[in-house]
Amino acid sequence: MTTELTVLTLAALWQVVQIALFSVTAQGQVGTDYAASPRDEKRELTGIAGRFQRAMNNHFEGLILFGIAAVVISISDQSTTVTQLCAHAYLISRIFYVPAYAQGLTPWRSLIWAVGFVATVTMLIAALI
């Protein structure tokens, strides 16, 4: 397995951790009855639960592009030191992003996000050249 696919798998496992963080904090906020219900009535999450939800959703969005980059690089046999470093930069930035978002660290949260985004775009461009 390429480095890029290994990192993609680790990023998917990180998403599982984020789902768990969100689920626990959200259930703590809305209660067990609401969490087990069909949730026909929308409740807006606030505080740490809301931040974990937004960080989780942001990773779903980023994971799509990173997944495409990792798969294209891997199946086209274009893995290089640059794409491997970008893959690691993506994962590390996503790991740091969650606590930065949870703690409301501005502008650091946005800068951390940008590292992962630039790494992903670099991989996509590397796949084309």
Task: Give a quick precis of the structure.
With 129 residues, this protein is an all-alpha fold. Helices cover 81% and strands 0% of the residues. The protein is elongated and about 50 Å long.
3D architecture notes:
- The chain contains five helices and no strands.
- Helix 1 (3-30) runs antiparallel to helix 3, helix 1 packs parallel to helix 4 and helix 4 runs antiparallel to helix 5.
- The protein has one domain (3-30, 46-128): Membrane associated eicosanoid/glutathione metabolism-like domain (Four Helix Bundle (Hemerythrin (Met), subunit A)).
- It is mainly α and 129 residues long.
- It starts with a helix and ends with a helix.
- 81% of the residues lie in helices and 0% in strands.
- The chain has helices spanning 3-30, 32-36, 47-75, 81-102, 108-128.
- The protein is elongated, with a radius of gyration of 17 Å.
The CATH homologous superfamily:
Membrane associated eicosanoid/glutathione metabolism-like domain
Question: Which range does the strand content fall in?
Answer: under 5%
Mean pLDDT: 94
- Taken in chain order, the helices and strands follow as HHHHH
Specify the biggest β-sheet: none
The coarse overall form would be elongated
The helix fraction, in percent, is: over 70%
Q: Give me the number of helical elements.
A: 5
Oligomer: single chain
Radius of gyration: 17 Å
Question: How many domains, in number, for the residues?
Answer: 1
Got a strand count? 0
Which topology does CATH recognise? Four Helix Bundle (Hemerythrin (Met), subunit A)
Distance between the termini: 22 Å
Task: Name the structural class.
Answer: mainly alpha
